[in-house]
Design a protein that fits this description.
The protein is 28% helix and 23% strand. It is of the alpha+beta class and 86 residues long. It has a 4-stranded antiparallel sheet, with no helix packed on it. The longest helix has 9 residues, at 66-74. The radius of gyration is 15 Å and the shape is elongated. The protein starts with a helix and ends with a helix.
Length: 86
């Protein structure tokens, strides 16, 4: 229920494909997630940029289905519903 509620609000509940990648994250990192491949069953690639100029790449898992991806693209499920009513 919690995960679906996050999705309905336009959040991205993601998990590391490899749990060891958690240790690559530093306090002052920035992240870029390649959303071009966001589709059911496809992993997302994230680039972790460190303050020292180095970068790491990690894969992320999600459980979104096609309808939930539409929610995310609209910003939330309510936004999608509102846009269809116009």
């Amino acid at each position: 229920i919690h995960e679906t509620n996050l999705k309905k609000q336009g959040m991205l509940p993601l998990t590391f494909a490899d749990a060891a990648d958690y240790n690559k994250i530093r306090e002052d990192d920035t992240f870029t997630i390649a959303m071009e491949e966001f589709s059911p069953g496809a992993q997302l690639a994230m680039t972790v940029s460190h303050a020292d100029g180095t970068k790491d790449s990690v894969l992320l898992n999600h459980t979104f289905n096609a309808q939930q991806i539409d929610w995310w693209k609209a910003g939330s499920a309510l936004n999608l519903i509102a846009s269809r009513g116009k």
